[in-house]
Design goal:
Number of domains: 2
Number of strands: 0
Shape: globular
Radius of gyration: 23 Å
Strand content: under 5%
Oligomer: single chain
Number of helices: 21
């Protein structure tokens, strides 16, 4: 069912001819099949081995490897940033339109909102994009394949780390693999969508496993180095360095002085490691000033932006133009609240509860709720750490439910509001009818089975 759904999605998104609403409904049907198959496996996951789950994941991913980039065109921004860096220009100062020209075939593939935006990613990832651009040039197909291989490497790291982290946190490994690795958000936005969340989170999970399992300083340093590389893919991963560090400081800091020394050593390591990556790649530290470049676009999924739009709408009723100011104020307040919550979670982790991985996932959740930009794939920041550390069934099913909703919130193909409404209604009627027929079949079968037993 899941493999078939992934295949249907791939075909629907391939540009097949037909009415737009029908093609959209076909793609949504494939997505819904995958989500339902995934939720169904969750009911029986305790009886399924990790190896079996790996093979299910491979079968679900296989059709999506043939799909064009789905749900966003960020991979084309990666292409542009790599080409800019390969030309010796600074991707942290120049957007694709300014660096390559508005009529460049590379620029034309970048989304309109991002053509004047410099790279918001760390030097580790931009250097990787540069290498791909040097090999592939502006060949779109080769670029997509190369970036997809990078993200698949991230998926492989997830597959390696999740069951090990789960055992360390007292969670069933099969549950962590089901909720994390097989999550439709991983399929949509890492495998098919080619987002760099894949390699970032793969490094985060691998680094956490190496660090938390360290019995000697050398392994701890290696694990922290992996986490620093992840933070130089996307800066948000720096949180993992500090939550892993909280566990190390608590374990090896037998005195207050020793704990302070370990804390300063951790900070020095993050700074030194990041400066080393910036120097080795030749990209410098300009990325620190470009990190917030994507924040100029108001994300409709971000609660802070929604509140700002609401205040602006109320102000508009009285003839006031408050939207931009309201969003600015709410985002600033949200940043403070998010930072305070993350700090409290870090302190509690340092004190011994919760587990560092659970603290990390919870901190990411706080950042998402209070932050200025939210995308469906950002939810993976929270889901993957918590998949291996949430110990209660209710918490896991909340994560599964939220993942299922976010997995269906973005349509696989474009269309106006009318087309989107038609497509979603067709799928709703189709699956609503299937559920009703299944319930009727069960009600009819039960008396017959009782009669046969009698």
């Amino acid at each position: 069912m899941g493999t078939g759904g992934a295949a249907v999605l791939t075909v629907a998104a391939s540009g097949i001819p037909g009415p737009t609403a029908v093609v959209l409904a076909l793609g949504l049907t494939g997505m819904t099949l995958v989500v339902l198959a995934w939720l169904h496996i969750g009911r029986w996951v305790a009886e399924v081995s990790v190896r079996r789950l790996y093979w299910i994941g491979v079968s679900w991913c296989a059709p999506l490897l043939l799909a064009r980039p789905l749900f966003s065109g960020d991979v084309f921004s990666y292409l542009a940033q790599g080409v800019i860096a390969a030309k010796g220009l600074d991707p942290y100062l120049l957007g694709s339109a300014e660096a390559l020209g508005a009529d460049s075939p590379v620029t034309e593939r970048v989304g309109h909102l991002w053509r004047d935006t410099p790279a918001p990613y760390g030097p580790a990832f931009v250097a990787l994009s540069r290498v791909i651009a040097q090999v592939a040039g502006d060949d779109v197909v080769l670029t997509v394949v190369a970036h997809r291989l990078v993200e698949l490497a991230g998926v492989a790291l997830m597959a390696w780390a999740l069951p090990r982290l789960a055992r360390r946190a007292g969670v069933a490994p099969s549950t962590a693999v089901w909720l994390g690795l097989l999550n439709p958000l991983v399929l949509w936005h890492v495998v098919a969508g080619v987002h760099n969340e894949g390699i970032m989170l793969g490094l985060v999970l691998a680094g956490m496993e190496i660090t938390l399992g360290a019995a000697r300083p050398g392994r701890a340093v290696a694990g922290l180095a992996v986490l620093i590389v992840a933070a130089n893919v996307k800066v948000v991963a720096v949180a993992a360095v500090f939550f892993a560090g909280a566990g190390l400081i608590r374990r090896w800091g037998s005195t207050t002085g020793r704990r302070v020394a370990l804390g300063f050593g951790l900070l020095a390591g993050v700074v030194a490691g990041s400066l080393a990556i910036s120097a080795v790649t030749g990209l410098g530290t300009g990325w620190l000033g470009a990190v917030g470049a994507s924040g100029h676009v108001h994300s409709w999924l971000a609660p802070t932006n929604q509140l700002g739009f609401l205040i602006g709408g109320i102000g508009a009723l009285g003839g006031l133009s408050l939207t931009s100011a309201a969003i600015g104020v709410v985002v600033a307040v949200g940043a403070v609240i998010g930072a305070v919550v993350a700090a409290v979670l870090w302190w509690r982790t340092f004190r011994g509860r919760p587990h560092p991985l659970y603290g990390l996932g919870s901190a990411f959740a706080a950042v998402l709720v209070t932050g200025p930009v939210v995308q469906p794939w950002y939810l993976l920041w929270t889901v993957l750490p918590l998949a291996a550390s949430a110990r209660t069934s209710s918490a896991r099913w909340v994560l599964a439910g939220v993942s299922a909703v976010f997995a269906l919130v973005l349509p696989p193909t474009g269309g106006g509001p009318g087309v989107l409404i038609q497509g979603y209604l067709v799928v709703l009627v189709l699956f609503g009818g299937a559920v009703a027929l299944e319930r009727r079949r069960v009600r009819t079968a039960e008396p017959l089975e009782a009669l046969s037993r009698g």
